[in-house]
TrEMBL record, chains A, B:
One Pfam entry name: FAD_binding_4
Presence of keyword Flavoprotein: yes
Organism: Tranquillimonas rosea
Organism domain of life: Bacteria
Protein EC: 1.1.2.4
Alphabetically ordered keywords of this record: FAD, Flavoprotein, Oxidoreductase, Transit peptide
Protein name: D-lactate dehydrogenase (cytochrome)
Annotated ranges, domain FAD-binding PCMH-type: 36-213
Signal peptide limits: none
Length: 457, 457
């Protein structure tokens, strides 16, 4: 019962679906964040659910760990095979299986990326709303309960996955949920697997909720004299019921990064980027009302536009933020942080974090999905510099403490993986032990993504 | 280790919180639906989470079943103590603990009813959106994953519970979720307990999402020549992205019940009742656009109004529908059905069901939350008439089969309880066994609401 006998049997049964080449192992041994390289023993490229189930059964027999892999863009080391074994790379399972325009849903394989899915949907007038910064796979996004800039209006992966096909640790293939828009039929297994980071089962198919492309869109950006004014403007906009499709905060440091990478002429001040979706009258009315709220909070002027090209430029800059930030410190490794607090505490949380970073030796531009109370400081660390790494870890730990003290969560959308494991007990108390009970019930051998989310035995 | 030693100890420790009076047992032995009376052995009225935890520990020691109770309005016999033991009645835990207007959330005890919660919220300009027909308790609504007329816009209990306090089967008290609007921190335990029907733990506190009262509301009603036209009108409205706050279907038989109970002057034809929430311009524009879609589908005329009194009358009639229907057959017992299908199959599902009921010996008016694809035929059965009971059970079984054949679910919002247990295997296959694995992990003694949702051993 070893990983190597598992690999031999996988190779025998699945042939060249298993790779043990050094380049494949290296490609699947690193992440986009600061975690050290960890090579798996093999990489599997299944073509079908059956192959996944076969592989899982073989691995279960031999006690070989299995870690799922989309395109490797997760930020907390989720897809690193820290206990060795097999990485299951879903890149060959990337089909859009069935589009149901009338029901506004789509069935996809886990390996399709969000941008390719939206390309395939374009002609239908529908779109899939969840948009993390990276062009992640839908399977990976479900596994980490990802969200992005549109969650304030359209929700996170929790709200946009209707049904799943999952291969369990013993090789059983189950279906959760249905194509109905709601159900009270038993435990919400779909919700349980979304965000379970591959520790309870491997997602092999997803049915997603789609949204109609809005008739009209207005978008704009405006500066504020300080963080507090910007955040207060967000709170008031939400309370007035102005329906925001997106509302993003970027701090002055972040603007500096944008200027360096894309040459924008924005002032080096805190900004809000916003978008409204609806009828032509509605988006004009909403932009105008928002402009008034901005002015009341000493921001602005708020320039908005309904022109697609200006909008695309704005959001492209926002989505590429993580990459732009590296311009602030070329060659740096990145530690993403991701706290989410009740909106009423957001200004305080951002201000405390800003002061804490200013007093540290490293840069950490801040941006956030402020409509949800979620923000990121991207800590930039010189590779190999232990003092900077320690400073970053300390800053991140203080952010986590801050989030919990304010009634929030240590991760709004990135997930736990390796990076946030140390905060689980503080956030959940005995709830974490209940998660452990569930893990042991569904994966008694502890082979699915061991060491992530739940501490392995 | 018997129920009676448990009751003795409960009485010793919790004093008059435990009742064994005949009237109390009788009050907690019946439901609003067709299930036979089942008396519990005792009724507990806890004042606090600690008392719940103490009681659960005592029950665990003695092997005594525990079944939660809100106000007993569930429709599938969820709260009946079919294995005897203790019913935990949450009526003394009915406080609104804390309103956070700025964060648009509220912390409540499980025994508060939805209408009383909204009364307490009135001055804040916020409201809690989920509105099942009955004035259920929030704890009961969470346990059954309830929804109602506004789910099409504001979601179900799944979408409106942010955090929970839960007493586990071993007496541990855990907290799930947080006041943050989203989180990726581990398994979604909140989502797991919502809809778990008291089989995994007892909910002792809830943090709910609130919504701003809309600046303006428009509402109206219109007739259609047939079911298909009404449903097609719904589908087109959704696809056009006209933001509906409510869209309810009622069939001609249902209108007849309304006429008998409230003297409305509606025609005996299928109708849609709709409501729009937003700015004054928006709700007027949306009502006008909806009127055009209605006309295209041979419905109407669509009369709408922004007057609160007309609106209140409309929705009062709708919410009291279950009671009105009894006027069609005085003294009848009621079997609620509750299927939910993809919208594209909705007309077909309603039409097949209508024909099936017409060919049966019993009446079954149909109404539904058609924006979600969810509808109910309320089957009216003469008490003690075995042939009618059999006809109703057969009709309900065929509805369930129809829902599954069309890719839907056997229950959109009522839950499984006793009434839908026989369909769990057909709906979930091996997924049901995974639910059983979770149940056994979290309630190894099988004492929490035994026999519901999961078949007890």
């Amino acid at each position: 019962m070893t990983i190597h006998t598992a690999l031999d049997e996988l190779s025998e049964v699945l042939g060249d679906r298993l790779s043990r080449s050094e380049s494949d192992l290296a490609l699947h041994g690193r992440s986009e964040a600061h975690f050290p390289e960890t090579l798996p023993d093999g990489v599997l490229y299944p073509d079908s659910t059956e192959q996944v189930a076969t592989a899982v059964r073989i691995c279960a027999t031999h006690g070989c760990p299995i870690t799922g892999w989309g395109v490797g863009t997760s930020l907390e080391g989720h897809a690193l095979a820290t206990k060795g074994g097999v990485v299951m790379d879903f890149s060959r399972m990337d089909k859009v299986v069935e589009i149901n325009a009338e029901d506004m849903d789509v069935r996809v394989q886990p390996g399709v990326t969000r941008s390719r899915l939206n390309e395939e949907l374009r002609a239908t007038g529908l779109f899939f709303s969840v948009d993390p910064g990276a062009d992640a796979t839908i399977g990976g996004m479900a596994a980490t309960r990802a969200s992005g800039t549109t969650a304030v209006r359209y929700g996170t992966m929790r709200d946009n996955v209707r049904a799943l096909e999952v291969v369990m640790a013993d090789g059983r293939v189950i279906r959760t949920g249905s194509r109905a828009r709601k159900s009270s039929a038993g435990y919400d297994l779909t919700g349980l697997f979304v965000g379970s980071e591959g520790t309870l089962g491997l997602i092999t198919e997803l049915t997603l909720r789609l949204w109609g492309q809005p008739e009209a869109v207005s978008a704009g950006v405006c500066a504020f004299p300080d963080i507090g004014s910007a955040v207060d403007c967000v709170i008031e906009t939400i309370q007035l019921g102005i329906p925001l499709a997106r509302i993003e905060f970027i701090d002055a440091e972040c603007v500096r990064a944008f200027k360096m990478s894309s040459g924008t002429d924005m002032e080096e001040k805190p900004h809000l980027m916003v978008e409204f979706h609806g009828s032509e009258t509605a988006v004009a009315e909403e932009a105008a009302r928002f402009g008034e709220v901005v002015a009341e909070h000493r921001g602005g002027p708020f320039h908005w536009s309904a022109k697609p090209e200006e909008r695309t430029k704005l959001w492209k800059m926002r989505h590429e933020a993580a990459y732009s930030m590296r311009a602030l410190k070329p060659g740096a490794v990145m530690m993403a942080t991701d706290i989410c607090v009740p909106i009423s505490r957001l200004a305080e949380a951002v201000e405390e974090t800003t002061a804490d970073i200013a007093a540290s030796p490293i840069p950490g531009p801040i941006l956030g999905h402020v409509g949800d109370g979620n923000f990121h400081a991207t800590l930039l660390i010189e590779p190999g510099n232990a003092a900077e790494m320690k400073a970053a870890k300390d800053l991140a730990a203080r952010m986590a403490d801050r989030a919990l003290r304010m009634g929030g969560t240590v991760t709004g959308e990135h997930g736990i993986g390796l990076g946030k494991l140390d905060y689980m007990e503080a956030e959940h108390g005995d709830g974490w032990s209940v998660m452990g009970d569930i893990k042991r019930a569904l994966d008694p051998g502890g082979l699915l993504n061991p060491g992530k989310l739940i501490r392995s035995n």
